[in-house]
Design goal:
The complex is a heterodimer of chains A (218) and B (232).
Chain A: H1 4-12, E1 20-23, H2 27-31, E2 42-45, E3 49-53, E4 74-81, H3 84-92, E5 98-102, E6 105-107, E7 112-113, E8 116-117, E9 121-122, H4 128-134, E10 138-141, E11 153-154, E12 169-171, E13 175-179, E14 185-190, H5 196-202, E15 207-208
Parallel strand pairs in A: 1-2, 1-5, 5-10, 6-11, 10-12, 14-15
Antiparallel strand pairs in A: 2-3, 3-4, 6-7, 8-9, 12-13, 13-14
Chain B: H1 8-11, E1 20-23, H2 33-42, E2 47-50, H3 62-66, E3 70-75, H4 82-90, E4 94-97, H5 100-111, E5 116-119, E6 133-136, E7 139-145, E8 149-160, E9 165-166, H6 175-179, E10 182-193, E11 212-215
Parallel strand pairs in B: 1-2, 1-8, 2-3, 3-4, 8-10, 10-11
Antiparallel strand pairs in B: 5-7, 6-7, 8-9
The chains are: A alpha/beta (218), B alpha/beta (232).
Chain lengths: 218, 232
C-alpha cells in the first residue's frame, strides 16, 4: 500500500519531457518533488503563473508570489505572469498537457466529484470545473476508500459532479487504473504488497482485470 | 485627463446601498485593501460582491461580511472563511458559486464588449441548471453572460495619473479583467507616478478603462499560507 508520497511518486512517472502541467491542491502538489531533474517540465498555477518553483527560503517569501493554493512560492527563470482570463484561456484551449487533481468520488464512466458535500461542506469549485471540462489528459490522485472504508470508485457518483466523462487515469494507495472510454476501471498495476483481491474488494464500480497485474515500480 | 483622487474614502464616496461591486484579488493577494477598509468605514450595505474569494474572517471581504454589508457573493472558492460559512448556512447570505475560469471570462467579456461567452466548464453539473447549452463541433458549451457591475475596484502595483496600470507578479490575477469590466473602475496603487514614467510597452491595463486612481497607504499584504523551505 502506498502513502501520499508514494502516490505522488507514481504519478510523477506519467509526466513527460516538455509537458506543461497543472497540479491541484493536496497530493498533486507533492508530485512536483518527484519530477526528474533531467526533464523540462513547466508547472502552471491557475492564479496566473507558468514556471512555478519550490517554496521560498525562510525570510524570502513574497506576498505577491503565491500559487493556486495561496501558498508562498518562487518563480523559476523563464516564468511568465498573466491574468486569470488568460490562465483559463490556455486551459480551455488545451495548451496545458496534463492536469493532476484530487477527488472525493470518481465513477466508472469518468465522472468526478470534488467540490461539495450537500449540507456539510461548501467550499466551491475554484478552477476544478474549468480544468476537468477542457483538459485532454486528467489523472486523479485519491484514496481508494473513504475513512468509513467505503469505495470512492463507484458505478455512479453520489456527490454533486465537478465534471462528466473526463477522468482518464486514477492512482490510489492500492492501484493504478485507466477509465475506459466505454466505461469501467481497468486495473493496470497493484501497489507493492497489495493483492488483486484487495483491489476488487475496495472497488464498487465495474473493475476490469485482464491477465497478470504487475506490481507498480516507484 | 487627471483621474487622481486623494484617498479611498473620496474614491468610493458615491458607492451606495444595493450596488454590484467587483473586487480584484486572489485569496489575499492583490486585494484593494484601502478601498475595502473605506467601504467598511462607510458602512454601505446590501452589496452584491463579485470576487474570486471571500477573504478570511478578519481580512479582505471578510471584514465586510462581518458587518453584514454583503447581500450576495459571487465567487469560485470560499473555503477559508468561517463567518462566511455561518452566514451561508443560516441563510443571511446569498451565494452563487461559479467556476473560476467562468468568473474571469465573464469579466473579460464585459471589458471586451461581448454580451456572453461559451465555456464547457460546468456542463453536466448543477452549474448548468437553467442555462442555455450549445453544441459546437460535437462538444457542449454553456452560455454564460458578461457581468454587469456598477463599480470595479482593483489593486495595482504602479499607476499613473491617466489611469494606466502595472501589476506585480501573481497579484495581477483578476485585477486586469475586472478593471476592464466596471461601469466605473477605481484603482488603488502602491506607487502613483506621472504620465511618461510607465513604459507604454509594459502597461497591463490601459488608462481608458480606469476612471479613478489613488495612491494607497499602509499595505499589509497579508500572506494566507506562509510556506517556506529551510536553507541547507
Amino acid at each position: 500500500m502506498l502513502d501520499k508520497t508514494g502516490i505522488a511518486k507514481r504519478i510523477a512517472k506519467e509526466i513527460k519531457d516538455g509537458y506543461y502541467v497543472n497540479l491541484g491542491i493536496g497530493i498533486p502538489t507533492l508530485v512536483a518533488n518527484y519530477i526528474p531533474q533531467s526533464m523540462d517540465v513547466v508547472l502552471q498555477s491557475e492564479n496566473g503563473l507558468l514556471g512555478m518553483g519550490p517554496f521560498p527560503f525562510e525570510g524570502e517569501e513574497d506576498a505577491d508570489v503565491i500559487n493556486a493554493g495561496k501558498q508562498t512560492i518562487t518563480m523559476l527563470p523563464g516564468s511568465a505572469i498573466f491574468d486569470s482570463a488568460m490562465s483559463f484561456g490556455m486551459i480551455r484551449a488545451r495548451k496545458v498537457n496534463l492536469t493532476i487533481l484530487g477527488a472525493m468520488e470518481v465513477s466508472e464512466n469518468g465522472d468526478i466529484a470534488n467540490w461539495k458535500i450537500p449540507g456539510k461542506m461548501v467550499k466551491g469549485m475554484g478552477g476544478a470545473m474549468d480544468l476537468v471540462a477542457s483538459a485532454e489528459n486528467i489523472i486523479v490522485a485519491m484514496q481508494h476508500v473513504n475513512k468509513a472504508g467505503e469505495s470512492k470508485l463507484l458505478p455512479q457518483c453520489t456527490l454533486p459532479l465537478t465534471g462528466v466523462n473526463c477522468v482518464k487515469k486514477i492512482v490510489t494507495e492500492l492501484a493504478v487504473l485507466d477509465v475506459l472510454p466505454g466505461g469501467g476501471f481497468k486495473l493496470l498495476e497493484r501497489a507493492p504488497g497489495v493483492s488483486v483481491e484487495e483491489i476488487k474488494n475496495a472497488t464498487a464500480g465495474k473493475l476490469i482485470i485482464e491477465g497478470e497485474i504487475p506490481e507498480m515500480e516507484i | 485627463m487627471n483621474k487622481v483622487y486623494s484617498n479611498a474614502d473620496e474614491a468610493i464616496a458615491d458607492i451606495a446601498n444595493g450596488m454590484t461591486l467587483m473586487l480584484g484579488g486572489f485569496g489575499l493577494c492583490g486585494l484593494p485593501e484601502n478601498c475595502i477598509a473605506a467601504l467598511v468605514k462607510k458602512g454601505v450595505k446590501e452589496l452584491t460582491c463579485i470576487s474570486n474569494n471571500a477573504g478570511v474572517d478578519d481580512f479582505g471581504i471578510g471584514l465586510m461580511l462581518k458587518q453584514h454589508q454583503v447581500k450576495k457573493m459571487i465567487s469560485s472558492y470560499v473555503g477559508e472563511n468561517a463567518e462566511f460559512e455561518r452566514q451561508l448556512l443560516s441563510g443571511e447570505l446569498e451565494v452563487e458559486l461559479i467556476p473560476q475560469g467562468t468568473l474571469a471570462t465573464r469579466c473579460m467579456a464585459a471589458g471586451y464588449g461581448m454580451p456572453a461567452i461559451f465555456t464547457p466548464a460546468g456542463i453536466g453539473t448543477e452549474v448548468a441548471e437553467g442555462k442555455e447549452v450549445r453544441n459546437f463541433n460535437g462538444k457542449d458549451y454553456l452560455m454564460e453572460m458578461a457581468f454587469d457591475a456598477d463599480f470595479a475596484i482593483v489593486k495595482a502595483w504602479k499607476g499613473d495619473s491617466m489611469g494606466n496600470l502595472v501589476y506585480r507578479s501573481t497579484a495581477r490575477n483578476f485585477n486586469p479583467v475586472m478593471a476592464m469590466a466596471g461601469k466605473i473602475t477605481i484603482a488603488e496603487v502602491e506607487e502613483l507616478v506621472e504620465p511618461g514614467q510607465l513604459d507604454p510597452d509594459y502597461v497591463h491595463t490601459p488608462g481608458i478603462y480606469v476612471h479613478r486612481i489613488f495612491q494607497g497607504v499602509n499595505y499589509e499584504k497579508r500572506i494566507e499560507q506562509r510556506t517556506v523551505r529551510s536553507k541547507q
